[in-house]
Amino acid sequence: MSHDPLDHDAIAGSVTGTFGRILRVHDEIGSTNQDALEWAENDAPEGAVVTTEHQSAGRGRWGRSWSSAPGALLQFSVILRPALAPADAGLLTCAMGVGVARAVNRATELDARLKWPNDVMLSGRKTAGILVESRGRELVDVAVVGIGINVNWARSEMPADIASSATSLSEELGSRVDRNELLVACLTALEETYGLLRDDDGRARVIADATRLSDVLGHRVTVSFVDSSTREGVAERISDRGALILETPNGTEEVSVGEVTRVRPA
Ligand code: BTN
Prior knowledge:
alpha+beta; seven-stranded mixed beta sheet; five-stranded antiparallel beta sheet
């Protein structure tokens, strides 16, 4: 396959399923999630993908911005039409995290782990982030899954605010990774894990995989909420709907939306 820059025909011609068969490749765009949400409203089919060499207004979770450098990351969004009940949206988040971790592990043989709900970690540092944005009231009828993976990005070139807690595939491997091949591996793995959400057995497998790949279960953690409050406890397990079950001094709590930090032993 072609070597880096992102190559529309090489990607669309290498995927074996439907994810990525219909594909937009931009040199630069504000946010692939924004482009994908607009495309979804204009009848893009499920599995259509937007990717770009560079984002000028990349979005992170909770309204934060997402940093990048041209050509150094793989940044893409997949359009899904999952018809999930909102209470099951956490399952989609878990499935996407499992898919990306699996793709990284297959493509590089690194040991990618998941920090609930879906940050992908290498050696305890963040390597990929996932932002699921959805539309639909009673059912999640359109979801855009946006994924940013630090691929060929030297830590010395990362912005200071992320350099201490982030890494990249090339940092961990000591060599560059072909982003076209990695994108095809991601689309294959994401289509597999998404397909598992169709029935109860598959959903149980997603939770089992998210549990096996977890970097936080069994550890003391602090969970931060969007209103800036926090809760400390031991991350016990992931529920069958993808929530984090936390054992706190006041009993068991179920967390559906939050950000987890591992508490380092004193
Ligand atoms: C996070 O960890 O906060 C989520 C980051 C998600 C970043 C990706 S990059 C591709 C897609 N387009 C965006 O604007 N954001 C997501």
